[in-house]
């Protein structure tokens, strides 16, 4: 099956005749990273989402199955974050009617603050770009994955899709125009993620934020933003630790997470460099100097939730440097 693009410039973007199906894994992400609301994010090795795309003769993108969401995600292509990202990519390359069947394997909790919708959108857009023999670079895929975010939570932020696509730690310096920078992180930096068994809707978590920020808090936050980047790039663990402070978003959103203060205190007492909300929560992340500390921190945070009768899942991971990968 071969398709010819309508625009003559895009006529070379034909799917290879021998490849009809592909499966891709895209990693979860920690957005905000304490002080960098909507501008910082990094990828982790696990969890993540998997997608399988198959080219078909029937025009249009279809969600044929979603596994692992307990029937909660929309199956309509125009409402699902992965298919929206694929559709906007296909429109851009002049193949809006290409037939694509999508199976999405949700391998992380919904509404968790782990970048679940971003991982699905990234897996989708990365997979279709591979099937079409890479008409765009990975970096050029970011705006299409952002369209998936717009549908999922009403805001086309890039601090989850950026690191999920590029891997590593990402700074969104500007949204207009989009300017995404990937920065070095220390080789031995480990992340602990703890997902308490509660759900926070990103739309709600954005709605409760204040529109006005005091000059004093802005200055403190800017100092921490600059300090965190300098600390990661040097690397300087003490500077990273001093900079993992959020005086603007965390005080507002932490009220949505029962036992937030106890879990954070447990992380810091057990050697974490810093600890805050992952994305819009309820997951919390901690950065640690080594794997042993990261595991201990995870256990202590889980115990803090358990003390209040809240079950949780913990993940320990290096910073994922690869981003999405083809798995079949
Ligand atoms: N920066 C976004 C927010 C990430 O905090 O609302 C959502 O995952």
Secondary-structure topology with pairs:
Layout: E1 21-31, E2 40-56, E3 61-67, H1 81-92, E4 99-105, H2 116-131, H3 142-153, H4 161-166, E5 169-175, E6 178-183, E7 190-196, H5 202-207, H6 215-233, H7 237-243, H8 250-253, H9 260-269, E8 274-277, E9 284-288, H10 291-306, E10 312-318, E11 325-326
Parallel strand pairs: 3-4
Antiparallel strand pairs: 1-2, 1-11, 2-4, 2-5, 5-6, 7-9, 7-10, 8-9
Bound molecules: L-homoserine.
Molecular structure report:
With 328 residues, this protein is α+β, with helices and mostly antiparallel strands. It has two domains: 10-182, Ribosomal Protein S5, domain 2 (2-Layer Sandwich), CATH 3.30.230.10; 190-318, GHMP kinase, C-terminal domain (Alpha-Beta Plaits). The chain is built from ten helices and eleven strands. It has helices at residues 81-92, 116-131, 142-153, 161-166, 202-207, 215-233, 237-243, 250-253, 260-269, 291-306, and strands spanning 21-31, 40-56, 61-67, 99-105, 169-175, 178-183, 190-196, 274-277, 284-288, 312-318, 325-326. The strands form two sheets. Strands 1, 2, 3, 4, 5, 6 and 11 form a seven-stranded mixed beta sheet that branches. A four-stranded antiparallel beta sheet has the order 8-9-7-10, sandwiched between helices. Helix 1 (81-92) packs parallel to helix 2 (116-131) and helix 6 (215-233) packs antiparallel against helix 7 (237-243). It is globular. Bound molecules: L-homoserine (HSE).
């Amino acid at each position: 099956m071969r398709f010819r693009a309508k625009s003559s410039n895009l006529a070379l973007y034909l799917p290879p005749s021998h490849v009809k199906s592909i499966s891709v894994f895209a990693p979860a992400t920690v957005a905000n990273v304490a002080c960098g609301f909507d501008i910082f994010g990094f990828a982790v090795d696990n969890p993540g989402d998997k997608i399988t795309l198959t080219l078909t003769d029937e025009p249009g993108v279809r969600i044929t199955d979603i596994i692992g969401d307990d029937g909660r995600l929309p199956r309509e292509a125009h409402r699902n974050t992965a298919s929206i990202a694929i559709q906007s990519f296909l429109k851009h390359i002049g193949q809006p009617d290409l037939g694509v069947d999508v199976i999405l394997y949700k391998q992380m909790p919904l509404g968790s603050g782990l970048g679940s919708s971003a991982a699905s959108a990234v897996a989708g857009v990365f997979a279709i770009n591979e099937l079409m023999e890479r008409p765009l670079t990975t970096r050029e895929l970011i705006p299409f994955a952002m369209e998936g975010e717009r549908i999922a939570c009403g805001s086309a932020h890039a601090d989850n899709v950026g690191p999920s696509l590029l891997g590593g730690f990402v700074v969104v310096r500007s949204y207009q125009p989009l300017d995404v920078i990937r920065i070095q992180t220390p080789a031995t930096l480990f992340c602990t993620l703890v997902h308490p068994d509660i759900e926070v809707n990103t739309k709600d978590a954005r709605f409760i934020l204040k529109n006005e920020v005091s000059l004093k808090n802005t200055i403190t936050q800017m100092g921490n933003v600059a300090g965190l980047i300098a600390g990661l790039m040097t690397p300087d663990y003490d500077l990273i630790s001093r900079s993992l402070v959020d005086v603007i978003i965390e005080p507002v959103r932490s009220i949505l997470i029962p036992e937030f203060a106890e879990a954070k205190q447990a992380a810091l007492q057990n050697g974490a460099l810093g600890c805050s909300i992952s994305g819009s929560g309820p997951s919390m992340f901690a950065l640690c100097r080594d794997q042993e500390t990261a595991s201990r921190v995870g256990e202590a945070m889980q115990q803090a939730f358990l003390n209040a009768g809240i079950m949780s899942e913990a993940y320990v991971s290096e910073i994922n440097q690869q981003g999405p990968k083809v798995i079949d």
